[in-house]
UniProtKB/TrEMBL annotation:
The active site is at D300 (for ompdecase activity), K302 (for ompdecase activity), D305 (for ompdecase activity). Its EC number is 2.4.2.10. Catalyzes the transfer of a ribosyl phosphate group from 5-phosphoribose 1-diphosphate to orotate, leading to the formation of orotidine monophosphate (OMP). Catalyzes the decarboxylation of orotidine 5'-monophosphate (OMP) to uridine 5'-monophosphate (UMP). 5-phospho-alpha-D-ribose 1-diphosphate binds at K24, R90, K91, K94, H96, D116, D117, V118, I119, S120, S121, G122, I123, S124. This is Orotate phosphoribosyltransferase. It is an enzyme of class 2 (transferase). GO terms for molecular function: magnesium ion binding; orotate phosphoribosyltransferase activity; orotidine-5'-phosphate decarboxylase activity. Residues 241-454 form the Orotidine 5'-phosphate decarboxylase domain. In the N-terminal section; belongs to the purine/pyrimidine phosphoribosyltransferase family. Keywords: Decarboxylase, Glycosyltransferase, Lyase, Magnesium, Multifunctional enzyme, Pyrimidine biosynthesis, Transferase.
Amino acid sequence: MNKKELALKLFDLGVLQFGEFTLKSGLQSPFYLDFRRIVAYPDILKNISEQLWNLVTDLEFDHLCGVPYAALSLSSTMAVLHSKSMIVKRKEQKKHGTKKMVEGIYQKGDTCVVIDDVISSGISMIETLEALEGEGLKIKHVLSIVDRMQGGAVMLNDYGYEVRTVYTIREVLEYLKEGGKVNQKQYTDTLVFIETNRIDFEQVRARRKQRTSYSYKKIGKEAKHPVAKRLTEIVLKKKTNLCCSADVKTSAELLALADAVGPNICMIKTHTDNLSDFTPEIIEELKKLAEKHNFLIFEDRKFADIGHIVMQQFTAAPLCIADWADVVTVHVVAGSSSIEALKATGKLDTTALIVVAEMSTQDTLTDQKYTEKAMTIAEQHSDIVLGTVSQNYRSDNPGIMMLTPGINTDRKKDGLGQTYNHPDEAFAKRGVDIMIVGRGIYSSDNPRLQSEIYKKIGWESYLKRDNDA
Ligand SMILES: O=P(O)(O)OC[C@H]1O[C@H](OP(=O)(O)OP(=O)(O)O)[C@H](O)[C@@H]1O
Ligand SMILES: O=C(O)c1cc(=O)[nH]c(=O)[nH]1
């Protein structure tokens, strides 16, 4: 069966339907391609899988992976027919067993070709690529049966992937018109729809990333690390989602600030490497205050080096962070290896990680793509990651908290085209779980009073929002 005959056959099997459909991107479409139907027709499944295989005969690669679910039958058939290894990417993480998102046998650095049945916005493909790349797999080529020509394939090309498809939707329509399956009006209307309905990938992505907010009860229930659970208990008990950033220079200032704001905070954020007079005794004093006021100690160390160095930085004297920090930050600019190295120290039973997914500086390099990849890495290590530092994105996983710095209560200050970062905005619209406030508290004349004010505003903003408990 050649491509034209196959297109006609697919039409007869109801793969192309006209009507009113809502696409994954949210767009309303007058037509839909339903390749899930072909699992009922083994010969057709085989034929389409061979058409896809023909697109990669010039390539050398280690694995095939189908975008779940529709393309799983395609990747399986190709793998079986051509004795190739296959990898399965899950849509959702299982709550039992190994809890892996990517199943199969592979090594970091292995190459993989990814297959979808249809590319519309390209979001499904990108989600799968990010999960596989998060595992260290290398992907250059992506395939689909049909490119709906609505922007997804172009976007994937822009992202550096080579897209190969059996058909464009225009080709399918041409074959069907020639074969008398669709009339001139259907042909024209569909093409006009495509031309006038390009999907803005970034917009769709941003909309999909507007997360639901979760109650602290739900977060505590879903969080895996004991420190994360303890944090939500403190938040609920003290009715505070305030983390005070103690960016001070001396131990005396740190201890005085911790004692003053202690009753109003759930965490204190430290930069102990900035203390001019650091000694291990200071940590003992700080721990006493943490116990007295019931807050956690969050060392904002932002590890970013290769695994070997990160391990040393976490454990080495004089700071010995691993021995006392309840929480510590880590960048994933080096990939997930930084996190894995920290885990390999065997010291993460009592210290949880926060992944820095997005920085708030004006010319930050943590663009959307970086942030989303960092979020994926955080989600893949949810047993040791308590949350992410980010401005705009909250993980879909309720157990991974969103911590956001740069929040202040002075609306006027931020009304000049800057990101609006009043607690109401942060908690209600962005799904923030913990607000980090620094200068707004420690630079004030009365840090205790300021922290009390922030505590109240933060808690009220949390109560006002629509929590998905
Ligand atoms: O390019 P996109 O805008 O992401 O749209 C295309 C995706 O939509 C469909 O999957 P769907 O999410 O409906 O799920 P299914 O495969 O599990 O049925 C289809 O199988 C593609 O994967
Ligand atoms: O965009 C989508 O969600 C979509 C379009 C289409 O034609 N077929 C499909 O399975 N999904």
